[in-house]
TrEMBL record:
GO terms for molecular function: FAD binding; oxidoreductase activity. The lineage of its organism: Bacteria, Pseudomonadati, Pseudomonadota, Alphaproteobacteria, Hyphomicrobiales. SMART domains: CO_deh_flav_C (SM01092). It comes from the Bacteria. This is Carbon-monoxide dehydrogenase medium subunit. Residues 1-170 form the FAD-binding PCMH-type domain. SUPFAM superfamilies: CO dehydrogenase flavoprotein C-terminal domain-like, FAD-binding/transporter-associated domain-like. PROSITE patterns: FAD_PCMH. Keywords: FAD, Flavoprotein, Oxidoreductase.
Length: 266
């Protein structure tokens, strides 16, 4: 039987020291991916370092035109937060659509973004809103953070501490979810920044994970209306194709979800 030691550090510094001293340590946030992976023996860490009770990773605040959410904040806390609902209603709505109640009360925003599952919702919000991901070492723009499926700019031992979302003029998120997991088969986050820029991020459809839909952004920048998306050609060559849907199916879903998001904003 594989032995795993459980740690509950009292600070980020202590967490980093435990990790550096371990043979194969892993940080534990909500555990929605790591624990099932361990159950299937696909991961056998020597040490689990629980970050969920660190006060420095908690909290939701608004300042300087941005909404900042601590990495250990659960999906349920984001969904029910009056501050989030007021500043970025689309983000609260997105959090409320993640998984089921059990997942929403355990999963965390930092864990979701750090894991970067190709069907996760938060990466679309981070990329769509032009967020900044703060870590134990630096600040990384969302455009530079997501590198591919389950791959980010995080270095070994680096911890996501908080995420700052610029408050948009308007935004909406629509997704077509897998009926069993409620992961996004295709999800589209549409936002208009305070500067008037249109950002459109897609999750669940890309073979390399979350990405921005440049063609839809250009169409909406010209005419911000659902009808403007109809003429946009979506290249399916870089999209996922699996038992849940073909690449061409997902290409169509990108347009449909984008149209619904724009209609919701209107």
């Amino acid at each position: 039987m594989h032995e795993t030691r459980y740690h509950r550090p009292s600070s980020l510094d202590e967490a980093a020291k435990i990790l550096s001293a371990s043979a194969d340590g892993r940080y534990l946030s909500g555990g929605q991916t790591l624990i099932p992976t361990m159950k299937h023996r696909l991961a056998e860490p020597t040490d689990l370092i629980d970050l969920t009770r660190l006060a420095e990773l908690k909290g939701i605040s608004e300042s300087g035109g941005a909404l900042t959410i601590g990495a250990a904040t659960t999906h349920a806390e984001v969904a029910s937060s009056d501050a989030v609902r007021k500043a970025i209603p689309a983000l609260a709505a997105l959090a409320g659509k993640i998984g089921d109640p059990a997942v929403r009360h355990k999963g965390t925003i930092g864990g979701s973004i750090a894991n970067n599952d190709p069907g996760a919702d938060y990466p679309a919000a981070a990329l769509g809103l032009g967020a900044t991901i703060h870590t134990s070492k630096r600040a990384i723009a969302a455009d530079d953070f997501f590198k591919g499926m389950f791959t980010t700019a995080l270095e070994d031992g680096e911890i996501v501490t908080k995420v700052s979302f610029p408050i948009p003029t308007k935004a909406a998120y629509e997704k077509f979810h897998n009926a069993a997991s409620r992961y996004a088969l295709t999800g589209v986050f549409v936002a208009v920044t305070k500067g008037g820029d249109v950002r459109v991020a897609v999750t669940g459809a890309g073979a390399s994970g979350v990405f921005r839909a440049g063609g839809i952004e250009a169409a909406l920048s010209s005419t911000f209306a659902a009808d403007a998306i109809g003429g946009v050609a979506i290249d399916s060559s870089d999209l996922l194709s699996d038992i849940h849907g073909s690449a061409d199916y997902r290409a169509n879903l990108i347009k449909v979800m984008a149209e619904r998001a724009v209609a919701a904003i209107a």
